[in-house]
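dumping this here so i dont lose it again. seq + smiles for copper (II) ion
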Amino acid sequence: MGGGYCSCGSLRSAGTLSRFRDPLPVPREKKPFYRSRGKSYYSLTMSQFRQSLHSELPETAVWGFDGTYPGPTIRVKEGELVFVQWNNALPEHHLLPVDHTVHGAGTGVPVVRTVTHVHGASVHPDSDGYPEAWFTKNFEQTGPFFTRKIYRYENRQQPCTLWYHDHALGITRLNVYAGLAGFYLIEPGSKDRRFNLPSGEYDIPLLIQDRSFNVDGSLYYTAQKGSPVEGPETTVVDMFFGDTNLVNGKVWPYLEVKPRKYRFRLLNGANSRVYTLYLDTGQPMYQIATDSGYREKPALLRNLTLAPAERAEVIVDFANMEGSQVVLRNSAPAPFPAGPLPDESTGTVMAFRVKGDPGGIDHFSIPEELNKVPPVSINDVCRTRYLTLDSAADRFGRDLMLLNKLTWDDPVTELPVLGTSEIWFFINLTGHTHPIHLHLVDFQITGRRAIDTEWFKEKGELKYTGPTQPADREEEGWKDTVRANPGEVTGVKARFVPFSGLFVWHCHILEHEDYEMMRPFIVIRPEENP
Ligand SMILES: [Cu+2]
């Protein structure tokens, strides 16, 4: 076996690892290697190395950027023109068991392929990280849609917390699980949007992921026993849930905080797990931003749910709490929303230890108004689309999830016109929630409505069984990923600007996106509209 994985069933029990043993790592910030007249140039390199993910575990072979997992944080300004060369210096063999029966991952393509997507970035299609624009070590081999080595990011969008991660067709779940992810933060271009929010050492990004380990410390990823396919074991599973939670690459870490306000940028970077996060002290988190920018006003929340790829920025005030420990916990069932509740291991995320004095006057504040988020209007909607989320079975009888009953290779069916607005209604006919992500655009949730799914499957008609429900509290504002819940129709309204061309929309459960729950879409220019 070429990689570092072990499928001998020597899974390490999560209960053998102590909680809150290691300090939270904060990814270092990447500096551009050249900056001139509002343009910045970066180069990041993916490689395999060993890193301690918990001090009671042997070092783990992981993949990362510039020798760290998660990769270094890229912090840019609104409107700054940024160029990034994403380099691949990974070994020839994959760290995890590749399944060659999955779309785009057949034996005819190199096993180790990468392509980096900045999730939520408004970019030209040639810099978006199209799943078939992959490349191998030193760009020796490239996928059919590869066009350029250096990606261009204009960052003409609201200040927000984005993240970069791998997006290679058929192996995204493995590349991200191995460690290929990091933060990409867009900061306000002008002072009036900076407010007086906690900054510097009081502004901390938290990448939350779940992982399982073998006894030798290596990452465990499912290999199916009794594979229906001849040859290597197949590894594509309906969902994958790890039995420990990591934050910024450490299992159940702790962070020493001062008794004052902190800004946390929460990102669910898990393959399949949904997190409902809360503080065990019952104290509030003041949410200030959603996926794609500031909320209109902060929201006082006791808990908030993030499906894979969703983000929320919150302010937590530890004032007058010297000497106490606050635990960030998870209460979301897996699968979501009707699976078993988390146990003590998967229900624990990290701890904050409040120590010392505030370190000066806490002059940071939670603003009353943050942004102008217009109410969702349907007056300018050019087109509505009804798109089903379906469960099916593949030729081997394995679970397979589809969008509109189509596969990745089927002809493109979503062709919005540049500059127009559309509402996409996701009709979820499966048994669990799928976080649906559209590249290029931000959107607002128009609402959710329960339907009779059996009726729909039989007659192909929508029979609503309840009134329209508005977005959840933590979803109010601009989003790029939305939870489509089972038995519901979920609507999102997006304006397709500013780039035309080929993009993708998909479920962000990585096991689903790797196995047909992803579709291309093309933003066409008005003159191309038939
Ligand atoms: Cu899905």
